User: Fold this.
Amino acid sequence: MSKSLLKRIKETSLEDLIQQIYFKKELLKKDEFRYYSKKERTRERLINYEITNHKITPYKKILDKKIKNSLKESFLLEHADFAKALLYKEIPKHVKRELDKEIRKETKVMNKAFMEIYNRYTYYGEVKREEALSILRKIDPDAILRPGPVIIRGGEYIPPKDYYSVQNELLRFEEEILKQNIEPVKKAFHIHYHFVRIHPFIDGNGRSARVWSNAYLYYKEFFPLVIPLDEREYYAQLLDDACVSRSKADEMCLLGTTKSHCNLTSLTKQEEDLFKYFAIKIIDEYDHCLANKRNTKNGKKSR
Assistant:
């Protein structure tokens, strides 16, 4: 893990990082007109004016590409064998075709669930717990509500052990997160984190969490959260530390030894570090896009 990433998590506040996301989003939206001719700029303004007629702005085009890539990366994050095979340069062409076919098949299923959740946000402004679970079950054959305990390999955290504990945590998640008026970026992070923490399905929880949270970010017109494959272990460790800290905080609240961190919106230090990591990854997506636009502009000028 790079030292610069660790330094950013340690030295930057979560509020500052979220402000950077808003700033870069607006910068990219304004920047998109600077690289067009006068005729093109007029056309793009017309598109923005007619957004109610479902015309697509340049920013929305970029956002759509980012979402498509995020679904593929989300699948590869949980299937490292596929990712490693694709990176192998001497892989036979027929094997690569089969791998690409499987990835397209899986991402198509994820995209369908993604769009169902996004459309619900668009038409109703919210997605209820049961509605989301019903949609997300389609992502994986084993994405069914688990009747008993589950063990997360390589981690210390143990999710709620039985069906009733899972249901209680899902109800708490709905009451304290989904129904509350929370800043959009934070709400997306909460959706991602608490879905993984509760681990309601036998399998497919990570993909489901990323699909739901990114659908909400898309609804709010933010870039998606994309976890790089080479940061998979660090991401898993941050998640595990955050979940363990939440379990300890809940135990202390039940014993009455503390009143802090009893609500899910009151973050422990480990949860805040995880949320900072999420924010940094979204900022990185914006920075990459802004850098590409600057290079394009410089290239046009040099010619």
Remarks:
- Residues 3-302 form a domain with the Fic-like fold fold (CATH 1.10.3290.10).
